[in-house]
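We include this case.
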Amino acid sequence: MGRFSDDLSDRFMVLVVNIIKLEKQLCKTYSGRHIYGQLFRAGTSSGANYEEARAGESRADFIHKMQIVLKELRESHFWINLIQAAKLITSDDEVLIFLIKESKELSNITAKSILTAKSKIAKTSN
């Protein structure tokens, strides 16, 4: 794959590493543990599914897997925003700000990739 795909893969890894950094602070309460678990599953899933999409067997397979990536990123973005809105973390504002920005940017890139792949399918079927 290309350099762009490698860079994007690195960005997913950084996103997940930063999600992991929230564990100690969030897991002190029942609600924090629940929210962290949801965020952890969605965030790690987005990165793993991106890697699967990179190895897609067809353009349709790539699109399907990227739609899963987008779904998981949107869920991650929700949980991160909830953490900030509920002020569940006070000492790691920089990490939260990064996670909000990065999850939104990755969602936008993923959505654009899906649209581009779909338009290529449409062009070849005409």
Helices lie at 3-20, 23-26, 30-54, 59-85, 93-125. Residues 35 and 79 are 7 Å apart (CA to CA). The first helix runs from residue 3 to 20.
